Amino acid sequence: MTKALIVLTNVAKYDSLDRPTGLWLSELTHFYDVMRDHQVEVDFVSPTGGYIPLDPHSMMSMDATDWKYYQDPDFRNQVLGATLSPDQVVPQDYDLIYYAGGHGAMWDFPASTAIADIASQIYQNNGLVAAICHGVAGLLPIKDEKGEPLVADKLLTGFSNVEEAANETTDAVPFLAEDALKELGANYQAGPSFTSCVQVDGRLLTGQNPQSARDLAEKVIEHLG
């Protein structure tokens, strides 16, 4: 059976602000929904394992897919409440790794060399690496088989500087995702703000924002064959 590993953030608060953050719920639920529809088995990991905080702003515009999972006690307890830690993951078990976003990911994803190593092994085993919105921060520490940044010379997208400014969080994040990707040599391309945009470069697939989650998941399914 095809198997995916979904990466979620453990960070519950902006570093410099008394403002909560965490996982952007729809970036998980919409991707996960497509995986389940196509009988893809899914495990969940986070940098420290265990509980996953939700960004409260992501719960202000929940749709039917979000509610379906949020109201499921197994989802809340077993997915959001009990993620694996990196040392519990065997990379060879997975065909795909997907980094969901939320502003919290800007702090713990780049610092998690353990998850980056897992992603590198999945990619080098001919698996897919996917990321969305602020989840692309998890791509930054991933190395290819030559020890070079995986994103170098790759066509990709992620939460744009324009979207960060519109969100009034430019000065609240430790860096801007778009800038960091470009600094590593990525061919960053964004679409119109807050509309679906998916970029594919071989086995690296990325989505720009929460609106891209389902389209990205469908593209992943295509590439899984």
From TrEMBL:
Question: Which interval of the chain is the signal sequence?
Answer: none
What are the recorded Gene Ontology BP terms? methylglyoxal catabolic process to D-lactate via S-lactoyl-glutathione; proteolysis
Q: Which SUPFAM superfamilies match?
A: Class I glutamine amidotransferase-like (SSF52317)
Q: Which InterPro entries does UniProt cross-reference here? A: Class_I_gatase-like (IPR029062), DJ-1/PfpI (IPR002818), Prot/Nucl_acid_deglycase (IPR050325)
Which intervals hold domain DJ-1/PfpI?
A: 26-222
Family under the similarity heading: Belongs to the peptidase C56 family. HSP31-like subfamily.
UniProt-recorded name of the protein? Intracellular protease/amidase-like protein
The protein's organism comes out as: Limosilactobacillus gastricus PS3
The record lists the lineage as: Bacteria, Bacillati, Bacillota, Bacilli, Lactobacillales
